[in-house]
Amino acid sequence: MLGSGGNYLTAFNRWPDVTYSSFYLGPDGGGGRAGLLGKDIVPPSGDVGYYYDPSNPAPTYGGWIFQSAPSPGGVGCVDQSPLSVRQDVLQFNSLRLRKELAICGGDITATLTVSSTANDTDFIVRLVDQYPDGGERYLVAEGIVRMRWRNHTLVPLAMHPEREYTVDLDRWFSYDGNASSSHPTL
Amino acid sequence: MRTKYYFYKFRLPSQVAKVQVALETCRTRMNIPVREGETIEGSRTTRNRPYPVLKCSRTRIHRSKPHLPAPCCAHMTIRSTLTPLLLLAPSLTTLTSAQCASSERDPHLHFAHGGRADFRGRDGKLYTLLSAPGLTVNARTEDAVYRLHTPRHNLVINGSFFTEVHLVAIARPETAAKVAGSGMGFGGRWSTEKRLLASYWASELNDANWGWRVVNGSCSGRPFKLGKGGYRKCDRLEVEVDMSSAVFRLGDWTVTVRGNRVYDRIAGPRHRVDIHYAARGAAVAGLPHGIIGQSFASSTPRSGRVDLYPSSGNFTTSAMAEGAIDGDASQYEVGLPHETRFAYSRFDAAFLPFDDSSSSAVTLEASSAERTPQDEAQMRRLDEDTPCPPPPCPPSQKVGDKIAMFQTPLYVDVAAKLEPWPVCDHGAGGVGRSDCVDHAHGEVECLTHFPPPSPVHTINAKPAMRDGALLATDVYFLPGYEPPIHSSIETVATMLVACPYNTRGDFADNLITLLPTLDTIVSDATSGILHMNMATLLQQSRGLYTSGPPAEPCEPNCFDSFKHSKNDSADTAAWVVSQDWSNGVLLWQGASAMGMLAALAAGGHEATPRLHGSRIPTRAMWLSITTNDIREALYRQGALMSGIIDAILYPDFIPVNQISLAELAQHEGDGPDPWWDDVRFDDWRSVNFPSVVQTAWYDMFLKGGLRIANHYHEDSRCGAFGSPCSVRRRRLKDIGSPRRLSALLKQPIRRRPRPRGTLRCPRRRRTVSRERNGAGADHELRIRPSRSAALLLPTRYQRHPRSRHQRGLAPARSAVAQTQVNRLAHLK
């Protein structure tokens, strides 16, 4: 329903029909921090890990239009490439898109299977639009889950170091970058 | 007709104070001395902790690079080199190239045609730096003590900095045409002059060297504030704020104000401003004056006294640009920030339209190098005798252009941007006047008298809620309107805004001027046929500022976290419909926090004895960047959003001492905590009114906004207008042509006397409509002419003369407007 190009105003009589696509996260086999993001293809199973130091949180770049602290580059659609060099941010790269992809509405979710040596942490997933030349990576959406509230319970649940958990992240935001902090927004 | 003026009060160092508190706490906690060139930053965080903690970190300030001269002179240099002829005739170059001057750091003045001088100024005094026809730039000097540590110098300087810049510019001069007000019996001659007042306050910069309110001012009397990334257009003048710099594009003049830290400060202001001035084209034809401005008017370099710094020790600056300026510095002092008159003022000289290219001949002569004082006087007389005609008001826009403003960008593509709104403004232009009082060093309190956009009648009340709490409530009426004392005068609809932020502070100013602005748009779009004659009600949320809970005093933590909001909305609605001026029609509107309270108000219909058990007679709702669940404003899947809490805890937003962060922290999480039930609205079936919901991709409430819009659309019952309730869009053809509206409105609409208590049940009508339309069908959500007319103007009916005690109760009044809607529908 959405035409090509951008920067125009359009209107519908009802909410556009949505076709959901599934992307799967997986390691790229190189053993590094990078992974694969396959559309409708399940990559080989395996783990990708990182160390997170709470005293050195990953900074916020853009995002929600309400931030008090000076996020580098402002809010909204901001280049995330400075995060690429951080050791505590994982990247999952998809193949290059062959044609324009229009994304509409709020239902973007992510499902992660995670485990941690800590009994509580946050996971932040960002969907970014990487430019063909591999340079800029612009934020499309991001989401967070605070693990102690992962099951929507009234009391916090600690994580067990040996156990894996499958958690859902809601639209607010999701895929391709994966970190445990976004300071100072959260 | 009574007239009321507003006092717009703001305290400048408010944001700075917050940072200070954090800094002091950090210093104490870290218990380490702060080394030179280092800052300590404080911020609240709740990362991995159940309660907010202050987070302290140390950063090293990076020294800025040595200042490079502004590049705007390069153009002239190149031209001159290429064309030797132009070297001999500097006046020619002034026609085609930009010239620049600047005042920087411990003010060093660099003049337009070369030469420099130093300027100390007297502490706290304002000086006119540039005075040109229709433009004045004043700046305040403040004494400062700082350390100058360079390879060549190691000394303590007792000097001064510019810390404030105030501009006055005429965006459009007054025309001789008289603009008569129309409609609702108000009229008269309004000034057509459009005047921009703007101020840059270095004190509003925070430690990171930016701020949310660095620039404030007014365009034609309409106040505005700009911070990081802000932009404002006032007719053809533009103000643009980047991080710490503001660019004022004033026709051929461009004034760039750049805020900066006072490095190695010992005493005095923490931030200073550097100002750059660039003149293009015909700007110099106005023979500008002022400390800097006069260097544009003559083509010779000016060299004045400069302070010669020793290499070490203490040094006090004293140069006052002697030798480079006409007269002495005291003749350039002005008393008020936006004062335009001083000894050499050129402000009131003949106004040259900024883009007028016909004045080039004058320029050639005026900027001649061999000009004598007599010639100059002659030129000024010439200027004043032959005023240029002001630019005409642009022809009225096509109606379609303006209606586009009403379209909700619900489905807007991610990066879609609407062009700035072209409106030919006939509002009363006014000069703001500021009185500033120095309380202590660095603390200035200013009382700026901005004339309101037009005279507005105000009612200040404190209606009692059901538990006795008195909520501060201000009602504003359109110009010329006075609340009826007797029943023979028209009553009006009410637009309600419940607001947690300071309704008497500068935050509320935009809300107060919303109605006159809407009226301008609507009347322009309909060629004066329709007017938004309504009342704007601004209510302070319970427990904040002047709104009290039943038991006072209760500090701290008067604030009830909006838990009474639903009931308060119902009680306020009951109060409104019982007022003499109310016709019983209520419209709720709000963005962000105000939108959440408006959304909650739709659920405030239960147990409302004052409304005789009926729901709030809401007729329409406008929501923007908001959600139906206040919990989402604080927690995101269990994670507290400390960023937003930091952002709203400002003195003019929500006072930090009135919020119990500990209580909020107790209700962290993502589970079904009943504590939040009172601040969530999900009774979608009770919605019976049309609405407009706005959101955007990066709106932090995107999900909430879509949830509201979709539930309103799918789950609400059909609205009072007999159509699906959510108004998603409006188009020109939906509104109808002005001619058609005019034909509709010529039909007199009279109120039918209705016996008390026989309120027509809207539910029945909705049922019928729903059957007709079919629930869940692909609705074409158009506003038909009759409906839009009713929505915009539910008031133009003749009220049936009755004595006060016979008048129907509130619900009956809302039925009146319903009658009017039916009537209009029949007409169609």
CATH architecture of the domain at 62-179 in chain A: Sandwich
Q: What does the average pLDDT of chain B come to?
A: 62
Radius of gyration of chain A: 17 Å
Count of domains of chain B: 3
Order of helices and strands of chain A: EEEEEEEE
* Helix amount of chain B: 10-25%
Overall CATH class of the largest domain in chain B: Alpha Beta
In total, the number of strands of chain B is 31
Helix/sheet category of chain A: mainly beta
Query: What is the fold-level CATH name, i.e. the topology of the domain at 62-179 in chain A?
Result: Jelly Rolls
Overall mean confidence score, pLDDT of chain A: 74
Write down the Rg of chain B. 30 Å
- State the CATH topology of the largest domain in chain B: Rossmann fold
- What would the principal axes of the Cα set say about the shape of chain B? elongated
DSSP helical segment count of chain B: 20
The helix/strand class of chain B is alpha+beta
Task: State the distance separating the first and last CA atoms of chain B.
Answer: 37 Å
Note the beta-strand portion of chain B: 15-25%
Main sheet of chain A? 6 strands, mixed
Give the strand line-up of the largest sheet of chain A: 1-2-3-8-5-6
Please summarize the sheet with the most strands of chain B: 9 strands, mixed
